[in-house]
Design goal:
Blueprint lengths: L19 E10 L3 E11 L6 E10 L5 E15 L2 E8 L3 E9 L5 E11 L8 E9 L2 E10 L2 E13 L3 H6 L14
Antiparallel strand pairs: 1-2, 1-10, 2-3, 3-4, 4-5, 5-6, 6-7, 7-8, 8-9, 9-10
């Protein structure tokens, strides 16, 4: 179920399905192939944008964190079905993305419009991303191009909505104080 917060800016209603903290795992094809874990969040403060933050880390064969992979932060806006995002990545890349909400379903296709990178960042010339809300989960796939290589898939993940235990407490008002319900 998609909830629309009462203090959400009206322009952001089409993006309400992104709100929250999402956790899961995916596959990356960078210099080598690896599995990664991810935590991404989309939040709002009542203004006309969503704040976005994502961090990923390499997972070993048992699913344990090995080391940080990459992180990015940004801001997303929407006007009717047109989406724009500005993102900064820890590898020294800044991007402007434009895209469109799919007709009749919670899905966004984004393409880079502008890329700026520092001298120390890896070669990168543009990308595409697809985000979708499928059966209550957030799925995404990213493609990347470099000056010497055409656009190709490089990361994808399947994320589930993280549950905040503080939300559960509100639903537990009528439990008896029997010594077992210690988290009241």
């Amino acid at each position: 179920m998609i909830e629309i917060p009462s203090d959400l800016h009206p322009d952001l209603v089409p993006l309400a399905w992104l709100l929250g903290t999402w956790q899961g795992a995916g596959v990356a094809e960078l210099d080598t192939s690896c599995n990664f874990g991810q935590e991404a969040s989309f939040t709002h403060d009542g203004r006309d944008f969503l704040a976005y933050a994502s961090r990923t880390w390499v997972l070993d064969a048992e699913g344990q964190r090995q080391r940080p992979l990459e992180s990015e932060h940004g801001f997303w806006r929407v006007s009717e079905r047109q989406v724009e995002a500005v993102m900064i990545r820890d590898d020294g890349v800044a991007e402007v993305w434009y895209g469109e909400l799919a007709e009749g379903k919670p899905q966004i296709d984004l393409v880079t419009d502008a890329v700026a990178r520092t001298q120390r960042s890896a070669p990168y010339s543009g990308g595409k991303r697809l985000y979708g809300y499928v059966n209550g989960d957030l799925l995404w796939v990213g493609e990347k191009a470099t000056p010497s290589a055409p656009l190709k898939p490089y990361m994808s993940a399947h994320l589930k909505k993280a549950v905040d235990p503080r939300e559960w407490v509100a639903d537990l008002k009528d439990l008896p104080d029997d010594g077992i319900t210690f988290f009241r």
